[in-house]
Write a structure and sequence with these properties.
heterodimer; A: mainly alpha; Rna Polymerase Sigma Factor, Chain: A; Arc Repressor Mutant, subunit A; 2 domains; 9 helices; 0% strand; B: alpha/beta; five-stranded mixed sheet; three-stranded mixed sheet; 7 helices; globular; RNA_pol_sigma_r3/r4-like (chain A); transcription regulation (chain A); DNA-binding (chain A); RNA_pol_sigma-70-like (chain A)
Chain lengths: 198, 246
């Protein structure tokens, strides 16, 4: 614990350079390990949730940190300045390993009868709130054409150029609609404080 | 005033990432960057939820799902839809020789064809955004227990007056950009009663289908999630009225 203060001066853990963080973990500073996890955990969760179901993502998340901390302690990370890429690669490997390990049984935590199917009450509430907010946002859009822009761009994942051509729109108009949607979404989260937007 | 003076900047790469338009290398680099960039991560989470919200509100866009319900008044067979599309495109091309913009003609043609169709649907469904039945739409997730040991089909209980139902289908996580999926629902006679294409899984690898319960009556059904010719997931479910299920 004391190593933290001595080697990093008065820096906050999230202000440490990757080299400082790695060196402290190598020297056995448990606080530095916690700092690493705290610093990279939100991004890692977002990334894993895009690649796996929530239950699997949680398992892979835990395993990623177990492996990452072990490797950093042992000095397996030879380029500390590449710490985020190192963690990212471990996470990707863990996802692959998870599916390899479970491919024969084809069993996932979702199959467990003790686990309630569907989202947790918190997730269901959050989903409902987002749904309501976005519905309100759609209703407030100026024209049906603006709704179509959002649908085609984000839901149907069509290209901007194609949408602009089909709807006879300027690039500026398109950008304005997307910008407004994002701004309204952002203000919702600022007000709601559920995402740390600045 | 405050809002106007505060010009928020959004990173354009966020859209590319979440819409799956990045190459694998770009995606890797972007993920590594947001791992230790809270501002960028916040934008990713915000737009991710915006997209999720838009998908949950697909009904609000008055999107026409492909419905193939035998005996249904608003049945639109695929051949008829294709014929209509073909006619509209031919008519638009012909009219486009004289008039621009073509979008206006497209809107007129769409209005002529869709308004009668919508009016039939609205007799039962009502306006999507204000109908309390829609706001209280019941969401049922299928597919998570398909491979369970007992192999029992999921049962969806609906109220007799309930007109809308959102059914979620669990899919297998994949690396890279998720491919659009097609959900096909067959009745007990193996006749297609509902099909929708171009469905994208959300961040929990679930695709959602909004179903009018008048098109799918109580009974047993099987479903297939396909990506091209590949079956991603399949299973069966039963639909029952909650007060008449026994």
């Amino acid at each position: 614990m004391s190593a933290s203060g001595e080697t990093s001066g008065h820096k906050e853990p999230n202000q440490l350079s990757y080299e400082e963080l790695v060196n402290q973990i190598r020297s056995g500073n448990a606080q530095a390990e916690l700092s690493m996890v705290t610093r990279f955990a939100p991004g890692l969760k977002t990334m894993l949730n895009r690649k796996c179901s929530p239950d699997i993502a949680e398992d892979v998340f835990q395993e990623t940190w177990r492996v990452a901390i072990e490797k950093v302690r042992k000095g397996d990370l030879r380029q500390p300045d590449r710490l985020p890429a190192f963690i990212h690669q471990i996470a990707r490997n863990q996802v692959v390993m998870y599916y390899r390990k479970n491919s024969d049984t084809q069993e996932t935590p979702d199959d467990n009868d003790l686990v309630a199917p569907g989202p947790s009450p918190e997730q269901a509430l959050e989903t409902r709130r987002i749904q309501d907010h976005v519905r309100g946002m759609i209703e407030q859009l100026d024209t049906p054409r603006d709704r179509e822009i959002l649908k085609r761009y984000y839901v149907l994942e069509e290209d901007k150029e194609q949408i602009c051509e089909d709807l006879n729109l300027s690039s500026q108009h398109f950008n304005r609609v997307i910008y407004r949607a994002k701004t309204r979404m952002r203000s919702f989260f600022v007000k709601d404080n559920t995402v740390n937007v600045k | 005033m405050n809002n106007q003076s505060e010009q928020v900047q959004f990173d354009e790469r966020v859209d590319l990432y979440l819409r799956g338009k990045m190459s694998e290398e770009e995606e890797l680099a972007f993920e590594i960057e947001y791992l230790d960039n809270p501002d960028l991560l916040a934008q990713v989470e915000m737009v991710e939820r915006l997209i999720h919200g838009l998908k949950l509100n697909e009904d609000s866009f008055s999107q026409a799902a492909q419905v193939a319900e035998p005996k249904a008044r608003y049945q639109v067979s695929q051949q008829a839809a294709e014929a209509s599309d073909s006619f509209i495109s031919k008519a638009s091309a012909w009219l486009g020789k004289w008039f621009t913009p073509q979008t206006a003609w497209g809107a007129v043609a769409a209005t002529l064809f869709l308004v009668p169709l919508m009016s039939v649907i609205n007799q039962s469904a009502g306006p999507a955004l204000t109908n309390p039945a829609v706001q209280g739409t019941y969401v049922h997730l299928l597919g998570q227990r398909v491979r369970s040991a007992n192999g029992a089909a999921d049962t969806i209980f609906i109220e007799p007056k309930q007109q809308n139902l959102v059914v979620g289908f669990a899919t297998e996580p994949t690396f890279g950009v998720p491919e659009p999926l097609t959900v096909t629902v067959y009745n007990a006679d193996d006749v297609v009663v509902w099909q929708q294409q171009g469905l994208q899984p959300d961040y929990r690898w679930t695709v959602y289908l909004s179903v009018n319960t008048q098109a799918i009556a109580p009974g047993t059904y099987r479903y297939e999630l396909t990506n091209g010719d590949t079956i991603v997931n399949s299973g069966s479910f039963a639909m029952q009225y909650s007060d008449g299920g026994h």
